[in-house]
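User: Signal peptidase I, Wolbachia pipientis:
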Amino acid sequence: MVLETKKTPIVLELFFLLLIALSIRTFIFEPFHIPSGSMKSTLLEGDYIFTTKYTYGYSKYSFPFAPNIFRGRIFHTLPQQGDVVVFRPVKHISVRYVKRVIGLPGDTIQIIDGNLHINNQKIERKRIGDFIDYESGNSIPRYIETFPNGNKHEILVDYANYNSVAYNTPVFYVPDDHLFVMGDNRNNSLDSRYTNVGFIPMENIIGRVSIVGLSFKLKKFSWSPFRLPVALRLNRIIHKVI
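Assistant: Predicted structure for Signal peptidase I:
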């Protein structure tokens, strides 16, 4: 006697595969593409990054379409100064930004003559050379910045793009359950220094940027409205973000 085994319908198989992929994207990792240079040289245009969704817990923005099923965060953990995060800004909730966490709840932040001050302490930075922008060919000063908690990261200070609003700021008092964020390309970043971004509610954080999975050098062609990939950056494959 031959026993017949029932085959799972292909539609059901596809449904389960989709469910698994959606679960991974919602609860574990989510990929994003970097379209701008506000986080140079940490992140470059053409980078494809992965964020860990579980690092800070979950909010409605962890889910597709941001369903209004609960408020705040569950399994909440506060980010550290220096973490690179993806979030939805309050005034542009449909888009996603990536910046570095500078101020935590209760901190005071101020920029004086281009130097970052946290809680009235001037943050140490050391010149380490220049960053050469591959598109413009411009040379931009590079620094290593060290936070009070010991976290270190690179920043760019493009003196050719001086902005008085960002170079000398009032004191920012970070409210409860909010973060103050800035881009590493300090003079070329729309971030918490500006009123159209401002403080970021913890609820709006999507995840922590952990690695660059792939990265492509982009080039603008006259016949295309978009910059297109022209080369794979081999040195940025599975590149840890710090």
